[in-house]
Design goal:
This protein is an alpha+beta fold. It is built from 6 helices and 16 strands. Strands 2-3-4-1-5-8-7-6 form an 8-stranded mixed β-sheet. A hairpin with a 4-residue loop joins strand 3 and strand 4.
């Protein structure tokens, strides 16, 4: 895969209390879910890989040997349960992007490096290597924002994992509830520039180089999703993701699917805290 546009949407991290059960649930929704891949800090993931971005299901698999971000993940699961926990932004050059973030006054954390073994469908094992840069959270934000550089793209974008029975192609947007939308918007415009944001009453859309971040007030969340999101218990939380599909009729036949004009939604209560909105785009 050629380089993806820097600072676009890379992936969502969704914490789950049981990795195999979560994978089975997403498979029932018509996704192909990659096999388990273990991190070196006591957690593992299973990926829903789309065209250039993905949903990362993450769970604790070795609670006696938690290191690095492992304790943070375990604590979040223990206190808040399953649900979205991270928004990853594309980086093509972590060192250059670290300087960019500093220039924009975002005070990024140090560059961290990680790796995991990937069981390729062809029977071989390859090593995924990645670098991450943590962005300091705005006040009241309990999840993490970070940049992620995938050094071995072929260890992530595996064609067999990108073909989905529900026709899913790409994640085009995420929806973030904010008790104070202006505070979150201030953070995002420092990252993307004021021209990237379009505001309307109760909401704002920030257009990244690949995908949108939609900031919604409580009323805007209700207008958009009704009661199909997780309870709004935090000052700010990721509530949904928009996924382009080739067929709403296929998605509409999936378990728990709620069909509406021009879209189908799988409520958050059935998808580990993330409302899945399918559209044809």
């Amino acid at each position: 895969m050629s380089s993806l546009p820097s600072l676009g949407l890379d992936h969502l991290v969704v914490l789950v209390d049981n990795l195999d059960s979560a994978a089975a649930t997403y498979e029932a929704f018509g996704f192909t879910v990659a096999p388990e891949m273990r991190h070196p800090f006591g957690t593992a993931n299973r990926l829903v890989t789309l065209d250039g971005n993905f949903i990362e299901l993450v769970g604790v698999v070795d609670p006696d040997h938690l290191t690095g971000p492992g304790p943070l993940i375990a604590d979040r699961l223990a206190t808040a349960g399953s649900g979205p926990f991270g928004v990853a932004i594309i980086s093509n050059d972590a060192a250059t992007d670290h300087e960019l973030l500093q220039d924009r006054g975002l005070n990024p954390g140090a560059i961290g490096d990680g790796k995991r073994e990937v069981p390729h469908p062809n029977g071989t094992t390859i090593e995924a290597r990645f670098s991450t840069i943590l962005l300091p959270n705005p006040p009241g934000v309990p999840f993490i924002w970070f940049l992620a550089q995938q050094h071995v793209p072929e260890a992530v974008w595996i064609s067999e994992w990108q073909s989905h029975r529900n026709g899913a192609a790409v994640m085009t947007a995420i929806q973030v509830y904010a008790e104070d939308p202006n505070s979150l918007l201030s953070f995002l415009t420092r990252l993307y520039g004021a021209k990237a944001a379009q505001e309307s009453p109760g909401s704002a859309t920030v257009t990244t180089p690949r995908g949108r971040i939609e900031v919604l007030s409580k009323q805007a969340v209700r207008d958009r999703f009704g009661d199909m999101v997780a309870p709004l218990t935090e000052q700010t939380q990721v509530v949904g993701a928009t996924i382009a599909t080739s067929s709403l009729s296929i998605v509409g036949a999936l378990p728990h699917a709620q069909k509406e004009t021009g879209r189908v939604i799988i409520p958050a209560q059935f998808a580990y805290g993330l409302a899945l909105e399918f559209i044809v785009d």
